[in-house]
Amino acid sequence: MKRKLTALLLALSLTACGGGTQQAEDTEVIVFAAASLEATFTEIAELYKKEAPNVTLTFTFDSSGTLRTQIREGAVCDLFVSAGQSQMDDIEAGKNDGGYDLIDSATRVDFVENKVVLAVPDGDPKGIGTFSDLATDKLSLLCIGNEDVPVGAYSLQILESLDIDIAQLEAEGKVTYGSNVTEVATQVKEAAVDCGIIYATDAATYGLNVVDQATEDLCGRVIYPAAVVTTGEAPDAAQAFLDYLRTNAEAKAVLEGVGFTVLP
Question: Are 80 and 63 in contact (CB under 8 A)?
């Protein structure tokens, strides 16, 4: 409300002084986005300064489940970009059991598509080449996201589709968990694990060796929804940034450069 009142007072002041052109108000847009978008959104933010120099983008990157919970608990957020549909559904009216009405449904779009891959450290010391190898003696330690993280949920779908028992892997001490996809990618990058299941975009960002890619029949399509949050203070500016992400050629090039597909 404070920002909206400031804008109104500024407009009235300019009108009273006979100003011919109103100056755009400085606006902060708070964006909660899945951890897998950190590198691309950080780069795009620099590009956006040319488009909207009066807009300050403030990002929080984390697992979609954590961000969803923070929004539910009252965190200030203007735009939410999730790596999974369920986290968005959980705060949209009519799609949850808690009565949450925190998403402007008219603004919700399927933003980008990603892929889930199996990545290994440099040199692939264990010779792991496919998801099926996770059921063999080649595997000593696998890293995946926990079940509240979209990439973790996709990982569990892949293992189930291949009849690989996650409980058995846990019993044998062959699996460890990350709280978001960045943690999983870091574990692989540092060769702390034999392999990790992550997004193709994170593999590109971290320069990891991808040995297999999940097909749609293993885990479905990996769609990232985006929407303006109803409790935010800059809905118009948030919508403008979302539109920019989806239509601007430079922004799309950044996203597609690491493997995202920008959806129409």
Answer: no
**Mean pLDDT within 63-81:** 97
CATH number of 2-20+27-113+222-262: 3.40.190.10
What the block records as the tokens of 141 is 């330690």
Task: Specify the pTM.
Answer: 0.87
CATH architecture assignment, domain 116-213: 3-Layer(aba) Sandwich (3.40)
Domain boundaries, the chain: 2-20+27-113+222-262, 116-213
- 227-236 pLDDT, tens digit per residue, is 999 999 999 9
> Which of 85, 44, 30 is closest to 258 using CA atoms?
44
Asked if 2-20+27-113+222-262 and 116-213 have one fold, the answer is: yes
pLDDT of residue 24: 59
Q: Is 44 helix (H, G, I), strand (E, B) or coil?
A: helix
Average pLDDT for the chain = 92
What are 190-211's pLDDT values in tens digits? 999 999 999 999 999 999 999 9
Q: Which amino acid, 20?
A: G
Radius of gyration (Cα) for the chain, nearest Å? 21
- For residue 110, CA distances in Å to 9, 92, 218 come to 37, 14, 21
